Amino acid sequence: GGGGAGPGEAAVALVVQVHERAEHLRILLDSLRRAPGVEKVLLVLSHDVWSAELNALAASVDFCAVLQIFFPFSLQLYPGEFPGTDPRDCPRDVGQVLSLG
C-alpha cells in the first residue's frame, strides 16, 4: 500500500495474523479504511501461507502504510518436513522412553 505515514512516521503499528481467510481480511481492511487517524498506522500483515488473493488485498491498501511478512517455514511449503510431518520424526504419540531408546 502507498497511503498514509511511512514506517518511520507511524504513530502505532497494528499487527494482524492473516490466515487463509481472504474475506475476513477484506472486512478488516474495509473497517480500517473508515477509522479516524488510520493514516498514522503501520499495518503489518503476518502471513503463514502465500496467496495471490491475500497479496492483492494487501496491495490495495491506500489509507496507511503496509508491511507484509511471511513465516519462512510454512506448512504450505514444507508438508513433508518441519513443520509438516517428517518421516524421520518419532511417531506423534510415542512416549519419552521409546523416543530416546
Description:
It is found in: Golgi apparatus membrane. This is Alpha-1,6-mannosyl-glycoprotein 2-beta-N-acetylglucosaminyltransferase. Substrate binds at residues 17-21, 48. With 101 residues, the chain is of the alpha/beta class. The protein has one domain. It is built from 3 helices and 3 strands; from the N terminus they run E-H-E-H-E-H. It has a 3-stranded parallel beta sheet, covered by helices on one side. The protein starts with 11 loop residues before the first strand and ends with a helix.
Tally of separate domains:
1
Regions with pLDDT < 50 over 5+ consecutive residues?
none
How far the N terminus sits from the C terminus, by CA atoms, comes to 53 Å
How much of the polypeptide forms β-strand, as a percent range? 15-25%
| Average pLDDT level | 86
Pathway: Protein modification; protein glycosylation
Pfam families: MGAT2
Family: Belongs to the glycosyltransferase 16 (GT16) protein family.
GO molecular function, one term: metal ion binding
What can be said about this structure in brief?
By secondary structure, this protein is of the alpha/beta class. It has 3 helices and 3 strands; from the N terminus they run βαβαβα. α1 (22-33) links the parallel β1 (12-18) and β2 (41-47).
Task: Name the descriptors.
three-stranded parallel beta sheet; alpha/beta; 3 strands; single chain; 20% strand
List the helices and strands and how they pair.
Blueprint: E1 12-18, H1 22-33, E2 41-47, H2 52-59, E3 65-70, H3 96-100
Parallel strand pairs: 1-2, 2-3
